[in-house]
Amino acid sequence: MIAKLTTPYSFLDDYSEGAHPRLLEALIRTNSTQQTGYGSDEYSQEARQLLLTQLNATEDEVSIHFVPSGTAANLISIASCLRPYEAVLAVQTGHIIDKEAGAIEATGHKIIPVPGVRGKMTPGNLETVLSQNTFFPHMAKPRLVYISNATELGTVYSRQELKELSDLCRRRDLLMLVDGARMGVALTAEVNDVALRDLVDYTDIFWIGGTKMGALFGEAIVVRRALAEGFEFHMKQRGALMGKSRVLGVQFSELFRDGLFFELARHANAMARRIADQFVRMGWELTAETETNQVFVIVPDTKLPQLEERIRFYAWQRRTQTQSTVIRIVTSWATDESQVDRLCEWISQN
């Protein structure tokens, strides 16, 4: 992907801004209190209880851990439950395959690619790849299925799709991990029918992204209790067990105290929907239905310079035969509605 960094308003990603004011206010308000560290502070404890309520789960079912980044969440979750010869299965567009600098491979685990459908893992394609990886002990042994919700293409898994994958994993003795960097926009999408409790029931590990949903940084990993023993040791070895864990606890408490997390996610989705609808009204072609906060649209190359003067975006895929480019526009919890209006006006004139 080629970043376009020449104009004032950014639709490059959903983490261009710092943090929601309420989180900053909470950090200032609690700043002078003395707290213990490494996840034992009262704010992290409060955040865990608020999340357990949202999950409709108990401490006997899952444990919750806070880490500073999505890459840390993925590599720690994966490395914590795999033996050295065990492999991860991920769709070819999966984030861990080409956007984490080989972080998973650096933990000693092979990633086996699986063809995706609209960015999603399907039981049929997963079964096919599993059947091609059985020459043991000469091949890495498939053990964990990695998916993202929302996916890299902005699509979301239905409850039935999640259940079918879960059923297959359990039949084949596979673990299942859900990357939740954009879990907020997935759960608040108009097409969504998945609840947080479903993730407890159908997965082994999942995480809830704060970085892309109004936090300065931070992700909450939810681990099935049977896999949770020693998880803190993995966090410590990977440099993700923070002495000032309070900073993460305060932010997640504020996000989940009264629904702010979901409110911000709905805003991001609504802004993306407005942009996508305007493109469609004016006859521009989307490469995928806009389900969450990412819009993928085909732009004639002749129009790119004009668009670059107005917004920042990613050139996702070059199409030389048609002299056009698929671009990605991403909205966020903080996207300015007036900037969406300006973009929609430009679309209507072009």
TrEMBL record:
GO molecular function list: lyase activity
Question: Domain Aromatic amino acid beta-eliminating lyase/threonine aldolase spans what residues?
Answer: 44-299
Keywords recorded for this protein, A-Z:
Pyridoxal phosphate
The cofactor named in the record is: pyridoxal 5'-phosphate
Q: Please, which domain of life does this record's source organism belong to?
A: Eukaryota
Question: What stretches pass through the bilayer?
Answer: none
User: Which GO BP terms sit in this record?
Assistant: amino acid metabolic process
Keyword Cytoplasm attached:
no
Q: Which family does it belong to?
A: Belongs to the threonine aldolase family.
PANTHER family registered for this protein in UniProt: L-THREONINE ALDOLASE-RELATED, LOW SPECIFICITY L-THREONINE ALDOLASE
Name of the featured protein:
Putative Threonine aldolase
Instruction: Give the organism, scientific name.
Output: Aspergillus calidoustus
